Amino acid sequence: MKSKSLLINYSGYPTTPNAFMPDNGLAVLAGSLISSGHETTIMDYNTLDVMQLLPQKYGERLLELQNKTDENSTEELKQIAGSIALIQEKDITRKADELTAIIKEKGIDFLGFKLWTGNGFKNNIKLAAEIKKRNPSLPLFAGGPHVDYFRERIYKVTDLFDALVYGEGEETIVALAEYVIGKGELSDINNLVLKEGDRVYETPQKRLTDLNVSFPVYDDDVYPAMKGDGKLKIFIAEFSRGCPNKCNFCGHSNKSGLDRRNKTSENIIREFNYISETHGTRVFRNGDSNTPGSVIQGVAEKILEDGLDVEYALISHVNNLKKEFYELLKESGCFSIFFGIESGNQRVLDEVINKGLDLNKAKEAIREAKEKGLFVVTSFVYPTPGETAETAQDTYEFIKETRPDVATFCPPIVTPKSTWGDYPEKFGIELGEGYFDDLMLFTPALFYPPTMWQPMNYKINGKDFFTVAKESDSFAKALEEDGVLTQVMEDAALMARHCDLGYSEFRDNVRRYLTVGDQENMQEIVRKINSSVLVVNKVHAGNSLVC
């Protein structure tokens, strides 16, 4: 006997272009269900159509009014906000009706929601509530990064979900599929957060021992949003899980652990080939937190051995790559590499961030990667807790000396289950009352300047969020004026490369399209990228591929 399910991705209005990329996590869960004999469909609503939630006429007017404080402008802002909220509510009602029709037509046994922060949390709760009204006995489960960080706190906001899934979901989703058809009990399934009356508890955590069983499915009948140009045809490829470093700001090890587990090169290339055959693309973005050098080397060598025509972006640590690797990466089709540097001051790295990084080695890695023609993206937390004029100057000089292709900046985000979150006072961090509860509803708009984010209820170095955000924004602007490209992540650089826009032009144009709800121009961007990433398109023209 098999179960039937729907896996739902509904984050609401996008704040970054990577919202339109295929969801690797849901595709992997679908693969696990299907390989175990169950049926599932991914209902991914993060397509270009989601931009209709912000009609352009409203978006452009909001942009005009954002710095006005007179009474008439304030009243108009309230009216526009009310109109947009009504559009969102109607959209959720339509989605609930659509999903209910599918539930009845296909005999769906359960729904799985992917929870994101902020709007991706609030809107999923609203959608789940509407579905529950129409289908009161249907089991609803939820997982995703939000659960990894907030776990039992989610039940303070909603008890709509029969179970929350934390950690790695491949085996858990199959166990849930068995449970809904009468096999087993929820309390016996690993990686769950459960609520029974007033009691909330976690079942034991279990991680995959063999990552090679984790294989995504993007077939159109399983993932219908992949048809046409509603989604970008740049795919995330996972090489490994786990990170031996435990940076003080990061809670990622709670999901994947400190021990590395790797896919084989053969399995990674099999995934490349499957996606190329299914959707015709040759472009991938590595989605790991800290890919080991041996895995990177093995993948590059296998690509060359098989004569595979691919282009890919990597995420790694400066400690992982030997000098001789960079030329190999370039030859194999690697376009860019992302290094999290975080600060240009060694004391801050050691004592505040716990990065496990030597700045001299970082300088060497950036230099070697650039010399071999790789596009180098670096990230920095600024200002860090304990930041001083001296440490800030060190970071500025580090960036000016190494000249990465991009330097990205993010103000500190203090998350649960991180060292900063567990021991804030040790780092001079003041968290407001209910900070972590508020953080569940916070949307980090990483494609936008921090000054455009909603505020977080904390103080860093005695300064409130807006002061910290302004410092971060001003630091990035100063470097930009000094000739350093900023605030373009490696996925956005990859997108810009496959369109007829330069990197900063792509950043600024797409930021505007998303800010004002310009779906027509955003659709054209996606079409150009999707046309360019096809296997048949191999002609480069300067910064861009011919679109």
Into which percent range does the helicity of residues fall? Answer: 40-55%
User: How many strand elements?
Assistant: 20
By secondary-structure content and strand pairing, the structural class works out as alpha/beta
CATH topology assignment of the largest domain: TIM Barrel
Tell me the number of helical segments per DSSP (H or I, 4 or more residues long). Answer: 20
* Count of distinct structural domains: 2
Gap between N and C termini: 48 Å
Tell me, briefly, the overall form: globular
Report the average pLDDT across residues: 92
Oligomer: single chain
Structural write-up:
The chain has 547 residues and is α/β, with parallel strands linked by helices. It has two domains: 4-202, Rossmann fold; 232-490, TIM Barrel, CATH 3.20.20. 42% of the residues lie in helices and 15% in strands. Helix 1 (24-35) packs across helix 7 (170-179), helix 9 crosses helix 10 and helix 18 (490-497) crosses helix 19 (503-516). It is globular and about 60 Å long.
Topology:
Elements: E1 4-9, H1 24-35, E2 39-44, H2 56-65, H3 71-106, E3 110-114, H4 119-134, E4 140-143, H5 145-150, H6 154-157, E5 163-165, H7 170-179, E6 192-196, E7 199-202, E8 235-237, E9 240-241, H8 253-256, E10 261-262, H9 265-279, E11 283-286, H10 293-306, E12 311-316, H11 325-332, E13 334-342, H12 346-353, H13 359-371, E14 375-381, H14 389-402, E15 406-410, H15 419-422, E16 429-431, H16 435-439, E17 458-460, E18 463-464, H17 465-481, H18 490-497, H19 503-516, H20 519-532, E19 540-541, E20 544-545
Parallel strand pairs: 1-2, 1-3, 3-4, 4-5, 8-11, 11-12, 12-13, 13-14, 14-15
Antiparallel strand pairs: 5-6, 6-7, 9-10, 16-17, 17-18, 19-20
Helix pairs in contact: 1-7, 3-4, 9-10, 10-11, 18-19
